[in-house]
Amino acid sequence: MSTKIYVGNLPYSVTDSSLQSNFAEFGNVSSAKVMMDRETGRSKGFGFVEMASAEAAQAAISALHGMSVDGRSIVVNLARPREEGGGAGGYSAGGYSASKRSDIGYGTGGYGGGRY
């Protein structure tokens, strides 16, 4: 069973291969991926490394968390599972609705309805 590790605050110079080589000294690396911006093609400053064993992953986390890479202190910890239902652009599951606060705006009634 492989263990996925989140690596954050990476310098933009880090590549997939350099990320993999940094973690390879702690055990077998299944994959290493630096996340890239679709529009600019530039690194987003974080990535994921998948290691073959949980022991190797824990050793890498302990050794590399807080380490300085090109002047930046990197963050290394176990990756959390992806949140379901994300990426909706800020709208809730119920869709877009007027503000729930009663102390602002014109209320929810059509043209100027509300507090006049």
From TrEMBL:
<keyword id="KW-0694">RNA-binding</keyword>
<dbReference type="Pfam" id="PF00076">
    <property type="entry name" value="RRM_1"/>
</dbReference>
<dbReference type="InterPro" id="IPR035979">
    <property type="entry name" value="RBD_domain_sf"/>
</dbReference>
<protein>
    <submittedName>
        <fullName>RNA-binding protein</fullName>
    </submittedName>
</protein>
<feature type="compositionally biased region" description="Gly residues">
    <location>
        <begin position="106"/>
        <end position="116"/>
    </location>
</feature>
<feature type="region of interest" description="Disordered">
    <location>
        <begin position="82"/>
        <end position="116"/>
    </location>
</feature>
<dbReference type="InterPro" id="IPR048289">
    <property type="entry name" value="RRM2_NsCP33-like"/>
</dbReference>
<dbReference type="InterPro" id="IPR052462">
    <property type="entry name" value="SLIRP/GR-RBP-like"/>
</dbReference>
<dbReference type="InterPro" id="IPR000504">
    <property type="entry name" value="RRM_dom"/>
</dbReference>
<dbReference type="InterPro" id="IPR012677">
    <property type="entry name" value="Nucleotide-bd_a/b_plait_sf"/>
</dbReference>
<feature type="domain" description="RRM">
    <location>
        <begin position="3"/>
        <end position="81"/>
    </location>
</feature>
